[in-house]
Amino acid sequence: MDLVTFLVLTLSSLILLSLWRQSSRNGKLPPGPTCLPIIGNFFQLDAKNITQSLTSFSKVYGPVFTLYFGMKPTVVLHGYETVKEALIDHGEEFSERGSFPVIEQSNKGLGIVFSHGNRWKEIRRFTLMTLRNLGMGKRNIEDRVQEEAQCLVEELRKTNGSPCDPTFILGCVPCNIICSIIFQNRFDYKDKDFLILLEKLNENVKIMSTPWIQFCNSFPLLTYYLPGSHKTAAKNFDYIKAYLLKKIKEHQESLDVTNPRDFIDYYLIKQKQENHNRHSEFTLENLTTTVSDLFGAGTETTSTTLRYALLLLLKYPEVTAKVQEEIHRVIGKHRSPCMQDRSHMPYTDAMIHEVQRFIDLIPTNLPHAVTCDIKFRNYLIPKGTTVLTSLSSVLHDSKEFPNPEMFDPGHFLDKNGNFKKSDYFMPFSAGKRMCVGEGMARMELFLVLTTILQNFKLKSLVHPKDIDTSAVVNGFASVPPFYELCFIPF
Predict the structure, then answer these.
(1) In Å, how far are 55, 354, 432 from 52, measured between CA atoms?
(2) DSSP symbols for 208-248
(3) Which residue from 120, 185, 243, 383 puts its CA 20 to 30 A from 176's CA?
(4) Which residues form the signal peptide (predicted)?
(5) From CA 359, how far away is CA 437, in angstroms rounded?
(6) How far apart are CA 276 and CA 197, in angstroms?
(7) Dihedral angle at the C-alpha atoms of 60, 62, 64, 65, nearest 10 degrees?
(8) What is the value of pTM for the model shown?
């Protein structure tokens, strides 16, 4: 048999297999657009605007529909009621992590974000307990955030009101806070290792949000042979994990089991306690990946939100003026902001909520999967099926948020100007897989933004009407465009 005949037979077999798998499942899964063999629906999606593609499909097929990324079916949930029903009302059944091959090649199913089953439950339970022991949601973490916010102010003063790109300086704050929790030390903002880590994290968020990574996730076998940015992302992951492993080994040498200093110490103590258990999840490799997950999730999501917030405040100076008036009236110009202030600052609180709603940081959430065969909305979703929950469709629901494409803090204020909560506010997801660091992230956003606005006037280099707030990429995350601004001290 010559090579051409072999290739034709192989391709034909794959097409027939693809058609058989799709037809055998289509009677159980929700409806969706007709897909091509092997390729699936990949080329029917706008890779630069997945959110809009999902909205268009939902108008045809309803709030629950099926797409094929390659030969694998993915059930998409669109709209608040559907997402809530899955993640909250059926939280256990939808608590598995869906497929994300590009990242899985690096983390191998370890850690807290992309782990599965019992491993995920054990590591998540331990992580939540340890973060509480270390003060998450308590005063000592608030003190750390306040101190870091003041360090940021001093660094911003050094710019002397000159134009600057805020990307790295805003990344320093959340990164230093998570560093202090993980390995009990912060970095100077000019530290070479620190800047390299921030650069790797920032680069990976951009890479993970590109259409190329969506292609790689749909056809993972090809990524082993094709060059591309996924290789750069893998090298960045390896660099970060190698750096963290070095820190872990330093902790092993200085560990005092009677006096744990940070997250790594608590984990190493737990590992010693589990020595007798051959099936223990508390391995060194799992520690490295867990710490890497905390490091990445605790840094880039918050720093990107801060960066986007300043861009929106430049675009809407009338909002900035109202926030600064409230800050100076409630806090003054000299006392550091604290979390107790938030309940007395409804407009500022509403502005921060509106930033998170408007920017739609993780548009399609991290992929979920079902833990068992489940009947959902009269459809049967087989165990292990990947599920995408459109957080965009919740955060931009026009019934809950009039004119959802407009940036308006009034979305979170009642007619009397009091802060108004919304069940539709899901930037951290919902249910059993929601972000473990939500409380800390919300604290950082409030304290850092109020501290910046208490001390500086924000000056744009262009007229506000010329500022474009559209995300440059919005696959995995919504990344704001490059911009510069001036921090003018009051």
Answers:
(1) 5, 20, 27
(2) HTSHHHHHHHHSHHHHTTS-SHHHHHHHHHHHHHHHHHHHH
(3) 120
(4) 1-25
(5) 19
(6) 36
(7) -20
(8) 0.90
